[in-house]
Structures
1.
Amino acid sequence: MTIDSKSVTPLFEPWRLNRADLSNRMAVAPMTRISATPAGVPTDTMVRYYERFVQGGFGLVITEGIYTDQAYSQGYTNQPGLSNLDQAKGWRPVVHATHAAGGKIVAQLMHAGALSQANRYRSETAGPSAVQPKGQQMVFYRGDGPYRLPRAMSEQEIVEAIDGFAQAAVFAVEVAGFDGVEIHGANGYLLDQFLTDYTNFRTDGWGGNIAGRLRLSAEVAKAVRRAIGPAVAVGLRISQGKVNDFTHKWAEAEAGAATVFGTLGAVGLDYIHITEFEAWKPAFSESGSSLVKLARESNPTLTIVANGNLHDPDRAKQVLRDGADMVALGRGALANPQWPQRVKKGQELDKFDSALLSPLATIKPSEVVL
Ligand SMILES: Cc1cc2nc3c(=O)[nH]c(=O)nc-3n(C[C@H](O)[C@H](O)[C@H](O)COP(=O)(O)O)c2cc1C
């Protein structure tokens, strides 16, 4: 695919996320690569891997999902954490390398909940209700067979999970030096398990209608903001689809989206990160608005990051026209760590080859050389 570089200029305009000045509108989407030490400390391989995207022109890197506490948050063996000082210090070289290359970097804070496949701190899983997750564990993250049946979290455990996000955010900003944090509210993990009608049957204040089911995400956002103060970027990622239920749609459709985006617009976030399989497509019906457009209608000023099959620059520009301020690329960035530079120069883009993530999703030697 050859690209007309003149037609992609909006992507190359600067943007500001709270106090972080970004050189352009292109971000690397969060991608778990299970390449930390068994104790959850980032490795030199990860430093080189993240640095490469900034050298390739991405203005912002969003890290892989990082676990937040030493209770139920860890999802995978060799997933990095932000749950103690060693892990937090281990992120410093990653942050330093991306800054030195002229980029900014945000830490994605993730609680796996019922989708946890391995956790060095706990032998069981926990979620909103004792509902076995759909689907099978992910083999490329060392999973095998069905997910375990989670235990329903107590009120106290929910409070501890919120505190875990807040404490991890403090580690991210004050120890590691990240430019911000992104709360992982998407893709089937804990916060999305609370939001989802078929995994949350709670009858206390953490369940019920869509507003009740969204409450945990809102409380986490508020707690993180309180913990790190007003001057650091805080985002929240949201989706309909899940790693274990790809085509899920919110039953409340556009009215639900209005509740979700209206609520998230009032909890102190700088940005909302929306991920859909094809981010430009109508969210609920054949002809309605995309989720990006619905989020923009509810939030005239919040930054909106869009993700989902946007590696074709025309698609990326289309979501900017729909109301997004930035685009995030996942597989397109893996295939083309120099995507922004290539697009600017009108060069060919490589297609993503899933062999890169096989047999495990670990960072491959080819991904740490320029
Ligand atoms: C290997 C891999 C790991 C991923 N890990 C995460 C993750 O840790 N957190 C997250 O929010 N999304 C994760 N995702 C989803 C991506 O951020 C993105 O939403 C998805 O790849 C779709 O975007 P794309 O079409 O640009 O690839 C992952 C995707 C891939 C391919």
2.
Amino acid sequence: MQQQDRPFLEVSDVRVWFPIRKGVLNRVVAHVRAVDGVSFTLRQGETLGLVGESGCGKTTLGRAILGLEPVRSGHVLFDGEDFTALPERRRRHLRRRCQMVFQDPQASLNPRLTVLELLTEGLRYHRLLHGETPEQAAGRLLADVGMDTDALYRYPHEFSGGQRQRLSIARALSLKPQLLVCDEPVSALDVSVQAQVINLLLDLRDKYHLSYIFISHDLSVVRIISQQVAVMYLGHMVEMGPVEAVMESPRHPYTQALLSAVPVPGRPAGQRIILKGEMPSPAAPPPGCPFHPRCPHATEACAHGDVPPLRSLPDQPGHLVACRLLN
Ligand SMILES: Nc1ncnc2c1ncn2[C@@H]1O[C@H](COP(=O)(O)OP(=O)(O)O)[C@@H](O)[C@H]1O
Ligand SMILES: [Mg+2]
């Protein structure tokens, strides 16, 4: 039981900065602060929906958790183990437990490999066939994503967008991961196909007790699949909590604006809040609260001091908001 209660994934104060280089000496003159101090935890079998405007750092955060981007500071712990601090062999083993599903399956599946090769490449590399033939293993994975074995000797381009996304999910599952980072996995698909892929992800989560980090700009999809939701703005988390609490009674002015643009079941339709200006560049973030230049409620004090930390609302434990104006 104790194992179950401890978060399976712990992300603490993670920063990912990309250097900007200039001049003949190629010197670092500034940094793009794509992810700038993000913390959260995730339990086995649970889904965290990650939302926020394009460029706020969602993909970079997902990649950093999987060890695909160098973390400038902070820690990512799986089952209490910090994998940035592990020797390479052990790190490879841990990394296997976390896989990514991308928005564009066309780009993430090697076009020169057959489905059989695509689905068993990782199994061969990690020596995980355990007595199964490659055909048996690939057939089992295809069945998991609702496809027939007649797909085995075909190439990715011969399939529709929805089927290709099923193949990339099968490929991600091949190494028996515990965590899938799904980065806009249905955004490129037709609406009718989106629901099928979402249902597949829900079924697989139950069957294999998977955890998901589900990145999407479609809040209605996030609502269906997530238990927890986190709202990102300019490399920071501004609001986080149970999906009903955040979506039905958003407290951060940014979340309120984001949600005012879409109808959410359970929340009365209100006035659409139009934010002034655009998200500033993460290479030159504003001082104080990162949202203050666009915030309809900002006061003089919001433009100074440290970035406001995420704090639990007194009336709603577990619902966290990073705003000085809320108590
Ligand atoms: N490899 C990179 N080098 C430099 N800047 C990057 C790189 N990847 C992402 N960025 C920048 O980091 C910020 C966050 O990007 P990203 O994580 O892709 O946001 P999102 O997925 O929320 O749209 C953006 O300003 C983007 O331009
Ligand atoms: Mg992205």
3.
Amino acid sequence: MRINDHPILSFPETETITFSYQGREINAKRGETIAAALHNAGITELRNSGDRERGRGLFCAIGKCSSCLMKVDGVPNVRTCITMVQEGMEVEKQTGFPEIPSKSTKLKSEIIEKKSPEVLVIGGGPAGLRASLTAASAGASVLVIDENPLLGGQMIKQTHKFFGSSDQEAGERGKDIGDRLSREVSDHPEIEVMTSTSAVGIFEEKVGIYKNREKFLKVDPEKTIVATGATEDMIKFPNNDMPGVYGAGGVQTLMNVYGVKPGDRVLMVGAGNVGLIITYQLLQANVEVAAIAEIASEIGGYFVHAAKIRRHGIPIITDHRVSRVEGTEKVERAVIEEVGDSGEVIQGTEKKFDVDVVALAAGLSPSYKLLNHGGCELEFQPALGGHVPKRDKRMRTTREEIYVAGDASGIEEATSAMLEGAIAGADAALSIGKGGPGEEDIIRDAREKLEKLRAGSYYDNLRSGLQEVEKPSRTKEQ
Ligand SMILES: Cc1cc2nc3c(=O)[nH]c(=O)nc-3n(C[C@H](O)[C@H](O)[C@H](O)COP(=O)(O)OP(=O)(O)OC[C@H]3O[C@@H](n4cnc5c(N)ncnc54)[C@H](O)[C@@H]3O)c2cc1C
């Protein structure tokens, strides 16, 4: 299942380590996740769900869902998609609802530490990294955490050259932008980085964070910037929980970050930019794509991406929905059907594809749960992808000490995420007496660039959604 030959990426050999899965010895590469190592060994069923005996496989691959929960060294509910494999680990399939582990397990949760950075940034994607750099450059001490083992968020798997504004890194590969920002952050003397570390709750004065398998920390920052990104949307159809149904971004993580193929033959669902780009990346990894099914009558992504796919002879079948997947223990077949103008299924139009992977590129929703838990006022704004926090033009939510930036504030792009991160980072620093006129310039400049990015009729809906949420009800607009 390893990708050996890739036009852009290389996956250098690292030390081989051994762990056990259900008592069986498995070889892995140091630096890969448990889920990636299992996939490479051909094991795609990772757990059985709830009280039902249904196998579940990887879906998001970035720690956002529960599909990959397994028992690791006796500890249940470990997100194996973001937990690095280690020598001698004991990994077991989890069935039903787990029990709380006994004290004799390797969980070290009794260790509690305290930390007091001036600014805590939750999420090390483009928004969080830019926010960290901006706040730290103004003189604030920053702690940035990310629950994934690597910094960079979604950028680390974007091998294509970015679209977006010409003065916002367009034309550069997303991966290279992510690597550059991650290096700058890691090298900055005022920034402390903690990866494999999740924020689990925002309380009245403290934020609770958990360093995977090591310790809990109580952080009491003066300002918190929430840059938790987005979650891939699921589509309802029979057997959508069968191993082999992935979020398209999950497929991308497996391939482009860990160099592991998700399967042999894929049906992509969704012909927006994400579906089109990941289809092309599957081809680059030598994975066959049977077709792209798109429920709308038009392809949503850019013409240039669709043209590349068509040149490879892959049909993009519009006006079709995925109606079910079939298989005994994992996906063996996918069935799509034509839909009419009002969304009704047209009988007798079934098309079957023998595939072992169905990748869903059906949209993203902001990851708002921490903001909700922290008491920030939210609003449902379909134009922004779902529930988003109300905020002012300096990205302050209705809880004055909490900021938001990037996809967590509404689904856009990495370019806008970085600009929002710069605004949040600069204002957080200013509000604790750091920085000065330079930070005001950063905010003004970023706002102007955002306005330019969001200009034009394509963004009419986005702009009206933003107008609704950029009206905080409790904080003072500056
Ligand atoms: C296939 C594809 C192609 C794309 N192409 C482009 C493009 O060409 N141009 C462009 O501008 N944009 C593009 N994008 C969009 C871009 O990747 C995103 O808009 C951008 O990554 C959003 O940045 P972010 O920092 O808000 O979130 P993310 O990049 O998602 O980062 C959020 C981070 O927060 C972490 N996190 C979440 N919850 C917690 C928690 N509780 N505790 C700790 N950490 C947490 C996550 O692990 C993650 O690393 C593309 C996206 C995809 C999927």
4.
Amino acid sequence: MKKYRVIINRDRCIDCGISTGQCPTHAKTLSQLLSQNREGESLGVFSADIYDRVKQLAEACPVKAIIIEKIE
Ligand code: SF4
């Protein structure tokens, strides 16, 4: 199954709440995925079965702080 990486740019994030609390579905998805940190970014790996949910979240972010990369 294909794997993807989600990257949250914490410097760009304006804490609008869409992905961190106001939407339970999105918050649950992100909290389960984000397992790594590097300077200014939080990262997580996920598989194709939840791609649509994560993509929906990335598209909902008003400042485009959520990036998805294909890794396999
Ligand atoms: S949707 Fe974007 S700006 Fe809003 S909390 Fe999530 S990452 Fe931050």
